[in-house]
């Protein structure tokens, strides 16, 4: 699989603050990556560095396996890292004509990209008459004009209403389904979960996890158990090969984390055979949100 972008120990310091701390990950062609982290975790600074608008303090990045210099490589990148900026009293179409001139792109691309972002019917309308969501969609259209190899978006749904958010996410999914590589920064877990195939979780500029979104949640789950024979239950769990460890909650609930797949009915039978009668038994898996919160809290 072709590597679009490699980051190696990429670091940015602003005085004594390390905004991005030795970040290393790869972007492979055809995947949709989310850089996920709370506000101030270094997402925009990271995008700024790979787009040559922020100078790294140390480390390196390489576009397209180093086949060309960064200046040339960035001609194959479509990026929106600021709020959309177009001439308000010009139509969407005329604004895009200007971008075509700057990028050296044929006007024939305008209808193609406006169709992708569902703005074709409104192309003659002034930019000033557009809603925030339409402005953001026009920005995506503009970034797609030169048919880039990768689309980079910083918080693409910030400030939009639920309908606007939905429209942007659908457009991103549609573009991705056609094979476009996408890198987006977001502080919204559900956005990354809905749109991305891969995620890089960062906090205080440091990488906490990178890999497929599915694997972030790839645990075997846990049992919640309660019994009047609590001490016997605890000793039983301590020696059980399928149980990695257990935690005790205030309300006598015991959470037994699984080290391997295991069925609730089996543990119920084993407890019963040992004379441990369970008054509560539930098998659960942590949601992605719980995993994410745990990951970011532990640091
Ligand atoms: N030009 C700058 N000078 C000094 N500090 C900066 C500068 N730019 C960013 N920072 C700091 O670097 C840290 C990371 O900021 P960054 O904007 O990259 O985070 P972010 O994850 O994109 O957050 P947000 O979603 O809020 O933009 C923050 O503490 C921020 O205050």
From TrEMBL:
Protein name, per record: ABC-2 type transport system ATP-binding protein
Q: Which family does the entry's similarity section mention?
A: Belongs to the ABC transporter superfamily.
ABC transporter domain: which residues? 5-229
- What PANTHER family does this protein's entry cite? ABC TRANSPORTER, ATP-BINDING PROTEIN (PTHR43335)
Q: Tell me yes or no: is ATP-binding among this UniProt entry's keywords.
A: yes
Sorted UniProt keywords:
ATP-binding, Nucleotide-binding, Transport
UniProt keyword Transport, yes or no: yes
What terms describe the molecular function in GO for this protein? ATP binding; ATP hydrolysis activity
């Amino acid at each position: 699989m072709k590597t679009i972008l490699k980051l190696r120990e990429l670091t940015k310091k602003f005085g004594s603050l390390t905004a991005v701390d030795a970040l290393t990950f790869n972007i492979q062609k055809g995947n949709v990556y989310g850089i996920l982290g709370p506000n101030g975790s270094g997402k925009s600074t990271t995008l700024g560095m790979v787009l040559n608008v922020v100078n790294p303090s140390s480390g390196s990045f390489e576009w397209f396996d180093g086949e060309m210099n960064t200046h040339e490589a960035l001609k194959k990148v479509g990026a929106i890292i600021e709020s959309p900026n177009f001439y308000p009293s010009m139509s969407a179409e005329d604004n895009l004509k200007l971008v075509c001139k700057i990028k050296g792109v044929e006007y024939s691309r305008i209808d193609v990209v406006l169709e992708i972002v569902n703005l074709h019917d409104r192309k003659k309308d002034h930019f000033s008459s557009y809603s925030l969501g339409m402005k953001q969609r026009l920005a995506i259209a503009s970034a797609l004009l030169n048919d880039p190899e990768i689309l980079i978006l910083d918080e693409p749904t910030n400030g939009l209403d639920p309908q606007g958010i939905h429209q942007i996410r659908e457009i991103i999914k549609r573009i991705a389904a056609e094979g476009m590589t996408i890198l987006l920064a977001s502080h919204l877990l559900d956005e990354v979960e809905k749109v991305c195939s891969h995620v890089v979780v960062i906090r205080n500029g440091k990488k906490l996890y990178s890999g497929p979104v599915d694997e972030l949640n790839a645990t075997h789950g846990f049992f919640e158990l309660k019994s009047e024979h609590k001490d016997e239950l605890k000793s039983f769990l301590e020696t059980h090969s399928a149980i990695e460890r257990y935690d005790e909650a205030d309300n006598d609930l015991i959470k037994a984390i699984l080290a391997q797949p295991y069925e609730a009915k089996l543990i119920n039978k084993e407890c019963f055979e040992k004379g441990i009668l369970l008054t509560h038994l539930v098998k659960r898996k942590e949601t992605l949100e719980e995993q994410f919160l745990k990951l970011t809290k532990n640091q």
